[in-house]
């Protein structure tokens, strides 16, 4: 559904202002490639923080199970 909405919005932009639509069509993949390393770092940091949180909460969960 998100892809269909994006396509419809792009077609509307193409009808209203075709130079801007072509510019977006050409440069969007380049911008996506430039931002890809930041997304990878974000996923890695999220996983690390989740692991640290799980390690810190583990003793409390173990004590809660025994109580």
Helix/strand layout:
Elements: H1 2-16, H2 18-66
Assess the beta-strand content as a share of residues.
under 5%
Whole-number total of structural domains = 1
Any idea what the radius of gyration is? Answer: 22 Å
What multimeric state do the chains show?
Answer: single chain
Percent helix, as a range, is: over 70%
Q: Tally the helices: what do you get?
A: 2
Amino- and carboxy-terminal Cα gap: 48 Å
Would you count the extended β strands for me? 0
Low-confidence stretches are: none
Coarse morphology: elongated
How would you characterize the largest beta sheet? none
Mean of residue pLDDT values: 90
Order of helices and strands: HH
Structural classification: mainly alpha
In short:
The protein is mainly alpha-helical and 67 residues long.
Question: What would your notes on this structure say?
Answer:
There is one protein chain. By secondary structure, this protein is an all-alpha fold. The chain has one domain (2-66). Helices cover 96% and strands 0% of the residues. It is built from 2 helices and no strands. The chain has helices at 2-16, 18-66.
Task: Give the key terms.
2 helices, mainly alpha, 67 residues
């Amino acid at each position: 559904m998100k892809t269909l909405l994006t396509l419809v919005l792009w077609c509307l932009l193409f009808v209203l202002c075709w130079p801007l639509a072509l510019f977006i069509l050409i440069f969007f993949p380049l911008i996506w490639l430039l931002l890809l390393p930041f997304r990878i770092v974000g996923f890695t940091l999220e996983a690390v923080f989740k692991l640290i949180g799980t390690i810190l909460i583990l003793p409390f969960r173990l004590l809660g199970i025994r109580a």
